[in-house]
Amino acid sequence: MQRFEILAFPCNQFAGQEPGNNEAIQEVACTMFKAEFPIFDKIEVNGKNAAPIYKFLKSQKGGIFGDGIKWNFTKFLVNKEGKVVERYAPTTSPLKIEKDIQNLLESS
Q: What's the confidence (pLDDT) of residue 78?
């Protein structure tokens, strides 16, 4: 059996799109969007208070316009060893990542 996990980290650093508290965010993600994966507490992804995981992710795979996260729904694909394999733009559909995920699972 191959394991694959999606982790979501809400952030309110982009035009105030995530103003709710952690409970409200969880409710919206699970009820409206049918999220069936862990939704972590709200964090910062840019600036001096950026969460350590995002400091790491950005240091491994910078974006087209630099390391900073430009908008919500930036996605990172990480292998089982913790190496960041790819970074995807906020506009990249999860379905467009499916082949990369399958290739990564097949190679492990």
A: 94
Range of the domain at 56: 22-107
Q: Vertex 49, ends 44 and 52: CA angle to 5°? A: 80
Number of domains composing the chain: 1
Identity of the amino acid at 24: A
- Residues of the chain whose pLDDT is less than 50? 1
- Contact in structure between 10 and 30 (CB atoms under 8 Å): no
Residue listed under structure tokens 């950005």: 58
8 inside domain: no
Distance, in Å, from the CA atom of 8 to the CA atom of 75, rounded to the nearest integer, reads 9
Q: What is the CATH classification number for the domain harbouring 92?
A: 3.40.30.10
Report the alpha-carbon distance of residue 106 to residue 61 in Å, rounded.
22
d(CA 41, CA 47): 18
pTM: 0.83
Would you state the structure tokens that stand for residue 11, as one six-digit string?
């952030």
Token pair of 107 as six digits: 């190679």
